[in-house]
């Protein structure tokens, strides 16, 4: 089986779950052509990401002339080309900027179709229901392979009409959500007749990388938060909560792993709250560095306002670390109150502070027990090879039908 993966920007530091999925599918014997639109604009610090980048055929690096030539080749099937042009313009809606963007997607789709034909691709899969899926849908309309796609959230669920999410589902061979919550959101926009095409395939971890979790550390309470520094990840609320916690637990220390546009705001907030001795900003770390930060910590904190199903929560649980997370999207499907961690409402620094105080007051033995219960749960539900086998079965079932 030969599958093309159409992606927007890949690899990226925050998208290691896609790389794990690709490698797991290849272990299942599936050949995969990687067709991202563009390379990452941030440095790739993880050696696995650096290697993955060398395996990609970047569509936009082909240049405008090559993309125009690919589009001209579609004139051999004028009706399909005309229908694809109409589809691209309809997806663009009334905005001239959006229409132009979708005409660019049509150029990309023509190139992707030619690459798929040269490689003998039987099916196209995209990640995220945004522009990558628009390109995959236009590839099919041009007469190329069928397509499917995986949605993650929250971006797709924030703007389903602007993204034509329902039409993308209805035209697809099948659509995948990474949680039951995600599937429920897709059901809101798909025709009832398309509901049987909606599937849940979890993002996965590689258990071998967490085969021997480090013991929970002794000493002062250390917590870690991992993610892009953007509003939806809620790090600013965490800083506000931490300012309350240090009043009664001055020994607490937070490591913020990641980077992004909000870093200057976070640095100012840390200084304003006089938390410089309690917070370390590490920048982006390779997977080995992330695991090292988890090993040094007693718990992961995930204060997000919106999510899909966070990979860092899975990784923390696999490392036998309790999790304090917000009650959003698919997170409660993984984090169970006082069994694998604590759940709090999003956006409330006082309630988050109370949960962190509860964490600080929990015995070392109980934290170990909670961590082990979380580890068992995530290994049962999120093994990358098991989840890839589900996706491979969907590919095979479609291609054999």
UniProtKB/TrEMBL annotation:
- Keywords in UniProt for this one? Transferase
Which Pfam family is an annotated match for this chain, by its short name? Glyco_trans_1_4
Q: Which Gene3D superfamilies match?
A: Glycogen Phosphorylase B (3.40.50.2000)
Q: Which domain of life is it from?
A: Bacteria
User: GO molecular function terms here?
Assistant: glycosyltransferase activity
Task: Note the InterPro entries from the entry.
Answer: Glycosyltransferase_grp1
Q: Which organism is it from?
A: Epibacterium ulvae
Q: This chain belongs to which protein, by name? A: Glycosyltransferase involved in cell wall bisynthesis
Taxonomic lineage is:
Bacteria, Pseudomonadati, Pseudomonadota, Alphaproteobacteria, Rhodobacterales
Give the CDD domains listed for this entry.
GT4_PimA-like (cd03801)
């Amino acid at each position: 089986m030969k599958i093309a993966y159409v992606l927007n920007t890949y690899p990226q530091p925050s998208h290691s779950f896609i790389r794990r999925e690709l490698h797991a599918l290849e272990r299942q014997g599936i050949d995969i052509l990687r067709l991202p639109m563009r390379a990452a604009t941030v440095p790739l610090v993880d050696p696995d990401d650096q290697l993955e980048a060398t395996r990609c055929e970047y569509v936009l690096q082909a240049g405008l002339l090559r993309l125009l030539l690919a589009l001209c080749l579609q004139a051999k099937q004028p009706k399909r080309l005309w229908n694809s042009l109409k589809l691209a313009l309809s997806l663009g809606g009334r905005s001239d900027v959006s229409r132009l963007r979708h005409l660019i997607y049509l150029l990309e789709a023509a190139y992707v179709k030619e690459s798929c034909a040269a490689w003998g691709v039987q099916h196209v899969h995209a990640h995220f229901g945004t522009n990558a899926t628009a390109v995959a849908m236009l590839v099919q309309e041009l007469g190329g392979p069928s397509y499917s796609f995986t949605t993650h959230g929250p971006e797709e669920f924030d703007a389903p009409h602007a993204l034509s999410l329902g039409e993308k589902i209805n035209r697809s061979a099948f659509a995948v959500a990474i949680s039951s919550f995600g599937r429920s959101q897709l059901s809101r926009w798909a025709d009832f007749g398309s509901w049987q095409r909606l599937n849940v395939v979890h993002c996965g971890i590689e258990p071998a990388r967490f085969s021997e979790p480090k013991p929970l550390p002794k000493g002062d309470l250390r917590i870690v938060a991992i993610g892009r520094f953007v509003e939806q990840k809620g790090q600013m609320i965490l800083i506000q909560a931490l300012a309350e916690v240090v009043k009664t637990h001055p020994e607490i220390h937070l490591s913020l792993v990641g980077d992004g546009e909000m870093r200057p705001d976070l640095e100012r907030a840390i200084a304003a709250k006089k938390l410089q001795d309690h917070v370390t900003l590490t920048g982006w770390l390779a997977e080995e560095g992330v695991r090292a930060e988890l090993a040094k910590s007693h718990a992961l904190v995930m204060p997000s306002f919106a999510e899909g199903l966070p990979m860092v929560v899975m990784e923390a649980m696999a490392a036998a670390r309790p999790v304090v997370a917000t009650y959003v999207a698919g997170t409660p499907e993984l984090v169970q109150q006082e069994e694998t961690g604590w759940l709090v409402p999003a956006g409330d620094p006082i309630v988050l502070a109370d949960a962190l105080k509860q964490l600080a007051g929990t015995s070392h033995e109980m934290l170990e027990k909670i961590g082990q219960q979380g580890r068992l749960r995530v290994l049962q539900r999120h093994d990358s090879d098991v989840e890839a086998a589900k996706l491979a079965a969907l590919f095979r079932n479609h291609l054999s039908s």
